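Most newcomers find our protein records easier to grasp once they have seen one. Each record describes a single protein and holds just a pair of labelled lines. A learned vocabulary of local backbone shapes supplies the integers on the structure line. Nothing more is needed to start thinking about how sequence determines fold. The record below serves as our worked example for the rest of this section.
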Amino acid sequence: MSALEKGRETMGKVIITAALTGNIHVPSMSPYLPVTPGQLIDEAVRCGEAGAAVVHVHARSPEDGRPTTDLEIYREILSGIKARTNVVISPTTGGTATMTPEQRIAVVRELKPEMATFNAGSFNFALYPVLNKVKEFKHDWEKSFLESTEGFIFANTFTSLKVFCKTMNEVETKPELEVYDVGQLTNLSQIIQEGFLKKPIYLQFVLGILGGIPASIDNLLFLTNTARRVLGDFELSVCAAGRFQFPMGVVNMLQGGHMRVGLEDNLYLNKGQLAKSSAEQVEKAIRIARELGLDIATPDEARKILGLKGPDKVNF
């Protein structure tokens, strides 16, 4: 089948991504937040059964839920997911504040996933207002972790962007380009011009993070139109923090794009109702999409849309 025929076959299909746990929410905020490798594997399987084509993975310490970059924990999670479901697995390269770019990209270099996140620029990434919403902490690290973000800059310099591109190109891992504000689009344009980032590209707008662009329809359309001017053609997914998750994702589906849900971005299914699983949010997103007459991409259709190398070429 030619590339053109594959494109026609998957045209108009919506890719639903489930972000399983992240490193924003602390375990005290929801009893349903998956923490251990086994919980994350089970959660990925549930999301795949619910209709998600992609799962986005952060690892946590199984002892206390603290975000971790331990490669063996990642290997356990990714290999466990792959053994039980056909979903595309996209690990994070966010790392921690003290890690070098080479350390942050290690999960890609070692495990060679089909796709991984690629943060498109530096900005203040602040979580400390969440402190007012937590009445009691389960673990000692949670409060100090949230407090520390008041002075945190999520550093993604041109130097680190090029390190990430080089590694991803070498192992044929597709970058999922996380864009938190409009200036990051020109960062991507620059490294495309310099030959580090290869087209076609897959963007994901991340809306509503304190320090990034606010979540609104105007801002989503502004980002989309700006991206078209400076980057040309692309596939586009959208995620948004908290109560903006579904409104922003639905608007993006209506403009021909894809949608990310999951407990990383939003702990709730409806107002005042905690989601018991990211799979519940996947089911809700798919119900809405089908009511709008949209078709949902399977994992293999998502692989065709995004031009992924396939699960047989990963190292886990």
Observations:
- The two ends are 28 Å apart (CA to CA).
